[in-house]
Amino acid sequence: MVIDRSIARRYWLNFNEFEGQLAEFCDTREALLARTEHMRQHLEKLKHTNPYNDTFHIWHDGHYGTINGLRLGRLHIQAVRGTLSLSCSLHC
């Protein structure tokens, strides 16, 4: 009987230790899954952002494309005012 009790006691001690480890691993796993899902959602959000929209105001002025209000390009029938060429000569 003494041997049976010591074996049973060791069994339950090991069982309780294992249960504690299992609960800790499950908590860690759940935390990692939640973090992974949060990062996946953040990545999807970043995929749909465009840093050029925040940096440059890209638009059009009639037939001309503009960046930050500066007209780009030219047409055969109408020349572009000197806003872009003047700004490039000052910055280049």
Q: What report would you give on this structure?
A:
By secondary structure, this protein is mainly alpha-helical. It has 2 domains: 49 residues; 40 residues, no CATH class. Helices cover 65% and strands 12% of the residues. It contains 3 helices and 3 strands, in the order H-H-E-E-E-H. Strands 1-2-3 form a 3-stranded antiparallel sheet, with no helix packed on it. Strand 1 and strand 2 form a beta hairpin.
Put the structure in a nutshell:
This protein is mainly alpha-helical and 92 residues long. The chain has three helices and three strands; from the N terminus they run ααβββα. Helices cover 65% and strands 12% of the residues.
Rg from alpha-carbon coordinates: 34 Å
Biggest β-sheet description: 3 strands, antiparallel
Strand content: 5-15%
Low-confidence stretches: none
Total helical elements = 3
Query: How many strands?
Result: 3
Report, as a whole number of angstroms, the end-to-end distance. Answer: 95 Å
* Helix-residue proportion: 55-70%
The figure for the number of domains is 2
How do the strands line up in the largest sheet? 1-2-3
Mean pLDDT: 82
Please state the overall shape, judged from the principal axes of the Cα atoms: rod-shaped
Which short descriptors sum up this protein?
92 residues; mainly alpha; 2 domains; three-stranded antiparallel β-sheet; 3 strands; 65% helix; 12% strand
What topology does this entry show?
Blueprint: H1 2-47, H2 51-55, E1 58-61, E2 64-67, E3 70-72, H3 83-91
